[in-house]
Fold this sequence. Notes:
about 260 residues, alpha/beta, Alpha-Beta Plaits, Rossmann fold, 2 domains, 7-stranded mixed beta sheet, 4-stranded antiparallel beta sheet, about 35% strand
Amino acid sequence: MRTWPALDIQQADDDDLIQAFLIDFNLAAIDGSRFFFHSNDDRDRAAGALRAHFARIEARPVDVADQDWAARSQASLRAVTVGALTIAPPWDFKPGDIVIEPSMGFGTGHHATTRLCLTALQQIDLRGCSVIDVGTGSGVLALAARRLGASGVLAIDDDADAIAAAEGNVALNHESRIALEVADLRASSIGQFDIVIANLTGGLLSAAADRLQSFAVAGGRLVLSGFMDHEAAEVLGAFAACAVDRRAQEDEWLCAVLRRA
Length: 261
């Protein structure tokens, strides 16, 4: 039977902060205080980084037998409503909901940054707009943009597994105007759009600021999230050429809507 490398984490820090930190180490899933990884190397690197960055943490490596733990950990997920949009797993949806098959627990609307982006998108008139969703993950924000009237959406991610999951969710929602592509935002030929959505990490937003701005037409908007309040000055400073239309915060997570000059 296959086993999965995992860390049992006992800590006094914020759970969302730990989750965001571990995403960079190829995190596969979360089941309570147990964090699963795709390989032993990923787990070992994550454990070392956690000990270096967090003083009050204990990360114990374990190997967990594959007994449908992922399905069990997702079974408790329920629909999440943000404004006029409801994101629901297949077992808890109603007509009109955006249906998302949880992919290892991510992209279901349960994380603060997804909710912030969903709120921001509803504050923009997307009718007839072209949209790019950078780092689409499950495809939830691409689907939301279409639901809000976008004429078409390009959803990109550098993770082929994420694109495969997004393709499944696009099919579940019978959506035909979302194009999905495995692409590296820093190197691929992308084009320009009315709206750029980038729910990434603070470090990646800062490093890719020039590229992300180049994806927006003059006067276009960028919806940025995935960064924390202590990263705001650095992230927004990297986008200094853009005007800040609005910003919102949930706990320590931020979302900013910028307008390209």
